[in-house]
Description:
This protein has helices at 2-33, 37-58. By secondary structure, the protein is mainly α. The chain has one domain (2-58). It is flat, with a radius of gyration of 23 Å. The model has no long low-confidence stretch (mean pLDDT 83). The chain crosses the membrane at residues 20-38. Keywords: Membrane, Transmembrane, Transmembrane helix.
Amino acid sequence: MHADAIAARRRQRGQATIEYTVVVMLVVIVLIARPSIIDDVVTALKEAYSAFVYAISWSDIPIRS
């Protein structure tokens, strides 16, 4: 059973490497095809954070008696 567990870990490690490689390749392709995507992502994150901060500022603070 111990040998089976070691073999299963090796397969999982190999699969994770393949998945990581595929994701990195896709990111590189997107960045090469459209370099302005970084600006778009930064702008979207700034807008989302701004909306989040605005929503938090309007929330009621519970007062315990």
